[in-house]
Amino acid sequence: MAPHGFYNNPFVLFLCMLCLLTITACADSRWDSMRDKFSQKEPAEWLNHGGDLYNRRYASTETKISPETASKLRLKWEFYAGKDITATPAIFNGTLYFPSWNGYLYAVKASDGSLVWKQNLQKLTGLNATGFVNNVNWTVSRATPTIAGDMLIIGIYGPAVVIAVKQATGRLVWSTQLDSNPAGVVTMSGTFHMGSFYVGTSSLEEGLSIEQCCIFRGSLSKLDIKTGALLWQTFTLPDNHGERGEYAGAAIWGSSPSIDVRRNLVYVATGNLYSSPLSIRECQEQQNNQTVPTQPDQCIEPDNHSNSILAIDLDSGKIKWYRQLGGYDVWFLACNNLSTPNCPPGPNPDADFGEAPMMLSIYVNGTMRDTVTAVQKSGFAWALDRNNGSLVWATVSPIFT
């Protein structure tokens, strides 16, 4: 599913940077020698939501903040942004970049919190809010900006547009629409690699109706960072030709894609279905009437990439392998409304992946395995082999969610 509508806190909120009074914390997220020349800069950089190509959110060389020093953390500075800041800031060359729910994109000095520049997204882009975000009637972003050369690239939370601005000034360089669905959004923070930008699309469509739903299909796009030109776009579901009652959903909406330079792959994970064809709904109803469900799930067709981890070729956009990990899962607003019969046959767990996979190399029975690892809203965590998507291990939280 796409993330639910954002809850606006009525109180004044601040971006608070906690730091030791005598220590400046460093998060060394430098990308290795195989990464872009633009990405090889000084320490204390955080280049997208995941921090690097691996999407680990791990500051590998941080040594100054520890359980022993945590009690000494004090407020160093605060920046008033008018409304909530829910995106992880990007950090580059001593500057923090982040959007706020007041509709602005900010650049702030990391040393003292002073403003470098700010841009009103609606004025900057000429885009009007879609009106589908609860209590928000202005153009906003909720994604972490991505550092790409001398630019920032960031998605808009409706319409489904990605923009690039100059890091130094916030001046608009280009704007590219990734999906024409009226409820389309870009909530994912993208990943920059070798002159290209990779990002997924999502939608608020599933939360707008208790009638028949929907037509949006999730996708991953590759853009040229110089021009914003769309180089390829890979959809997660078969074409529904704009017809309701067919496949819809399987959004790509969380964290940032991980990129495997060695295998020339980008890894993403997807959300639940918003709708499915009649034949699939009938299949599921038949399954529900059986004492023992079939394994594997006969209602999952090969081109249904909902609740899945996908490995996609960086050059062609072709799916190299995939693993469907959620079974039949159709959810939209009607499934929360007991007064309507429109929720399709269950189960309807809404168990999408809210994050892209992390790239981890781990020892399994004494052998080093290259894996991608991700956790679902169901509480299940999965580790898959990067070569073919085969299962390395799976586990579930003690309390099923």
UniProtKB/TrEMBL annotation:
Cofactor(s) needed by this chain: pyrroloquinoline quinone
Keyword DNA repair: no
Pyrrolo-quinoline quinone repeat domain sequence ranges: 77-321
Stored SUPFAM superfamilies: Quinoprotein alcohol dehydrogenase-like (SSF50998)
Molecular function per GO: oxidoreductase activity
Keywords carried by this UniProt record: Oxidoreductase, Signal
Keyword Plastid: no
Domain of life the protein comes from: Eukaryota
Signal sequence annotation: 1-27
Family under the similarity heading: Belongs to the bacterial PQQ dehydrogenase family.
PANTHER family xrefs: OUTER MEMBRANE PROTEIN ASSEMBLY FACTOR BAMB (PTHR32303:SF10), QUINOPROTEIN ALCOHOL DEHYDROGENASE (CYTOCHROME C) (PTHR32303)
Protein name, as recorded: Polyvinylalcohol dehydrogenase
Gene: pvaA_11
